[in-house]
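thread: overnight batch results

M.L. [08:02]
morning all. the overnight job finished for the chain we discussed friday. pasting input first so we're all looking at the same thing
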Amino acid sequence: MNQKTCILIGAPVQEGTGRFGCDMGPSGFRAADLAGALGQLDYSVVDRGNLTPAPLRDVSHPNPAVKALPEIVAWTESIAEAAYRVSAEGMPIVLGGDHSIAAGTLSGLSRRAAEAGRKFFVLWLDAHPDFHTLDTTQSGNLHGVPMAYATGRPGFGGIFPPLPAPVDPRNVCMMGLRSVDPAERKALAEAGVIVHDMRAIDEHGVGPLLDRFLREVAAADGILHVSLDVDFLDPEIAPGVGTTVPGGATFREAHLVMEKLHDSGLVASLDVVELNPFMDERGRTARLLVDLVASLMGRRVLDRPTRSF
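M.L. [08:03]
and the structure it wrote out:
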């Protein structure tokens, strides 16, 4: 894999959320000039355009709350194959779309890591763990299930695509959680997922908590995937999301996370999800996310441009 080549893939999925607009997310990132920001950091940038879903299959589940199941299954199949294929060519940066896209990216990238004989780790930056199964979801919005599926939780078999290499939940670190349902809380504890909610960040600081996880990844010679949900950030600085939860990461905390990730040299792939330009304020959230991705890819705090908004 050529780490100096960034491959952008749009995944315009909105069926996983109960709100329209996430399908415009990839266009929002492109309009905010993500490719240009990466190019300024001397990366070769290839934009593969937007994916389309696989053919729909007739699938169903007895939970009557579940919505758009055939559509999300089709998207998962398509995204998984694309993530697997592209990860052999460069660094995939998958532009969402709602967080259901992670069902595909995680399964495809974990398959690639397993074939390389490497341990696969995930840093999940999100207000929500997305650890519901098809049985436990009450909203029925399937952006709440991708991590449960990717880690092999029961109830997805025969409906979602088979998992060639389930993600080990003990290799998943979730940071920024502040909206967790009781069923998810119990499942997270059982599975052994590393959880640092906003209280832990307030008490210990985001830096030391992240450093601990990155040391584990490095010690295992692991491959690290980062999945960044807009609602990891406080809605005061990132309003362009349909799932706002107060009390998220600040501008400075988010940039510190990104800069530490770059310093580690461990990140091999990235999702950026849940950007809803329809909810945004004149591109404010899209531009912030482009800045964060640039920090992850090597822009230093001293290099940050001054802007007049």
